[in-house]
Write a structure and sequence with these properties.
Number of strands: 16
CATH superfamily of the largest domain: P-loop containing nucleotide triphosphate hydrolases
CATH topology of the largest domain: Rossmann fold
Strand order of the largest sheet: 5-4-8-10-3-11-12-13-14
Low-confidence stretches: none
Largest sheet: 9 strands, mixed
Mean pLDDT: 87
Radius of gyration: 26 Å
Helix content: 25-40%
CATH architecture of the largest domain: 3-Layer(aba) Sandwich
CATH class of the largest domain: Alpha Beta
Number of helices: 12
Shape: globular
Length: 404
């Protein structure tokens, strides 16, 4: 008996059931559909501030799942029909976004025909949970959504935005728990993954994380995985060597919570690309330009550093700047700045930002290690860099050094 049926049988007697203790190898694996973000029968959350491209990314994930193609760079474990419920925009706006996504990724209409379903909240509202009499929570569309998804074999339901799918108090934990549970029941009954697209609160500054998700915390607590999408910061742009004009098009996706898999070690990046639809008119010749998401990788800091030069730079770092001193990984202070190991890399043609990224990569991979040492003419100890020769860069088949 499915969990849905157990939930629905409120009058059934309650009994303590002994643990079955099956052979671990015989336990069915989790039904991951997309990376470790979307899994059948569970709810996930994608949170982002306005303008960060969350609708474009969510649609891209739906298209990836419907086509079985990893267009956003993450693994599609099982292709499955997807249903995007845009509860704010009219149908023609959904058509524009889908057309832009297909055109950007070179997909024909037939790639999603009969595999991708769209619903506009302008045509028919969807209310999963509401207050029936001011106190009692009712679930008007819960069964209808579950039945419609089951009828089409839907594997993913995207709800964009979550706040439009209910009429409860989003600052009430009991209310948000009820709404999240209703979507979890739909996920269970339909055997689908549910992705709730959610807003974050307006912040005056600081890092945006899952704790900034708007409203009561019960929503993100109920989700089995949560991710946060944010625009590239000026600091990230400087560190990665990205021009200010390009920065506005780049967004990063961070795992904010994952109850079923380890958090990703590094953020995923996307570029929001304006796609011309070719629908110009006499009065509007340019036609529409619609944003679609494409995977983006930061520039490779090792692109201009050959394996031979990398090892010569490491030789110089190992030798130190002289007078018994070691180079440092830090740039703060005039004295330290002279001993910053990035100065060695600048001698090989790297700019300061790229040199800093190379040092950071070498520290992560263990090529460089921080150590404490005592200068022969001073009593206080210092921290400096030493080279782990066993992890020096080597040549790979593609001619690039392996640094990580």
């Amino acid at each position: 008996m499915s969990l849905w049926h157990r939930w629905s049988q409120a009058a059934a007697p309650l009994a303590a059931v002994p643990a079955a203790l099956p052979d671990p190898a015989a336990i069915p694996p989790r039904e991951w559909l997309y990376g470790t973000r979307l899994v059948r029968r569970f709810v996930s959350v994608l949170a982002a501030p306005g303008g960060a491209g969350k609708s474009a990314v969510a649609l891209g994930q739906a298209v990836a799942l419907a086509t079985g193609r990893p267009i956003l760079g993450e693994t599609v474990h099982h292709a499955a029909p997807a249903w995007v419920m845009d509860l704010e925009d009219p149908p023609d706006e959904m058509d524009r976004r889908l057309a832009a996504c297909l055109r950007l990724h070179g997909l024909a209409d037939d790639a999603v025909r009969g595999r991708l379903y769209l619903h506009s909240g302008r045509q028919r509202r969807v209310t999963i949970a509401t207050l029936a009499d001011g106190m009692t929570i009712a679930f008007p569309d819960r069964d209808a959504v579950a039945e419609a998804a089951s009828a089409r074999g839907i594997g993913l339901i995207v709800v964009d935005p979550f706040v439009k799918s209910h009429a409860l108090d989003e600052n009430s934990n009991p209310h948000m728990d009820a709404a999240a549970t209703a979507w979890a029941e739909i996920a269970e009954r339909a055997g689908a993954a549910v992705l709730l697209v959610h807003h974050v609160r307006k912040l005056s500054g600081g890092t945006v994380d899952v704790e900034a998700a708007r409203g009561a915390k019960a929503l993100t607590d109920a989700a089995r995985s949560a991710a946060v999408l944010t625009s590239m910061t000026a600091e990230d742009a400087l560190r990665l060597g990205v021009a200010p004009a390009e920065r506005r098009r780049l967004v990063r996706l961070d795992d904010a919570k994952s109850n079923m898999a380890p958090l990703a070690e590094q953020a995923r990046w996307f570029r929001l690309v304006g796609i011309r639809l070719g629908n110009g008119t006499a009065t509007y010749p340019a036609g529409d330009s619609v944003a679609a998401a494409a995977p983006w990788q930061p520039p490779n800091p090792f692109a201009d550093l050959s394996p031979a030069d990398a090892n010569r730079a490491l030789d110089a770092i190992a030798a130190g700047p002289g007078e018994g001193l070691l180079y440092t990984a830090h740039r703060r202070g005039a004295e330290v700045s002279d001993r910053w190991a990035g100065r060695v890399l600048e001698g090989f043609g790297l700019d300061e930002a790229t040199a800093a990224r190379v040092l950071a990569a070498w520290l992560r991979s263990g090529v460089l290690e921080e150590t404490e040492y005592r200068h022969p003419q001073q009593r206080r100890s210092r921290r400096g860099l030493k080279v782990n020769d066993a992890k020096r860069p080597t040549m790979t088949g593609g001619g690039e050094p392996t640094h990580d």
